[in-house]
Amino acid sequence: MRIAPGLAASLALMGSALAAPQKPVPGRYAVDAASCATKDFFLTVKANGFESSVFSCEGLTLYLRGEAGDRTLWQVDGRQCRGLHAGSGGPKRFHMEVQPNRLRIAWPDGTPASTFLRCSP
């Protein structure tokens, strides 16, 4: 049985629209490729949290806030956060912008962050 070209195109478009939004990929992140090469990592993302020298959080819940092109914006609620950008420790809300192999965090205190590059395992 053959599918009409118009129907096939519509099904392909619907399939891409129904794709799950991209989430942060676990791994090590650095500010650039040179930092990846020298293993100067800034951020380590785990299945349910992340660690960096300035801010760490566990127990993350992600809420989709928007998608544009290859970017996905998440509101993130961290159950237990600590560090320089957390103020007092405890629950915190902040944002993450996810792109293929890249991650940007808007810290809870409003301090902007660089876009971090995911380093190869």
| Strand composition percent | over 45%
Structural class, from secondary structure content?
mainly beta
What is the number of beta strands? 8
N- to C-terminal separation?
A: 44 Å
Identify the strand order in the major beta sheet: 1-2-3-4-5-6-7-8
| Unreliable sequence segments | 7-16
Supply the number of helical segments.
Answer: 2
Order of helix and strand elements from N to C terminus: HEHEEEEEEE
Estimated helix fraction: 10-25%
**Radius of gyration over all CA atoms, rounded:** 18 Å
Q: Sum up the overall morphology in one term.
A: globular
Major sheet: 8 strands, antiparallel, barrel
Give the quaternary arrangement of the chains: single chain
Mean pLDDT: 83
Summarize this, please?
With 121 residues, the protein is mostly beta strands. It contains two helices and eight strands.
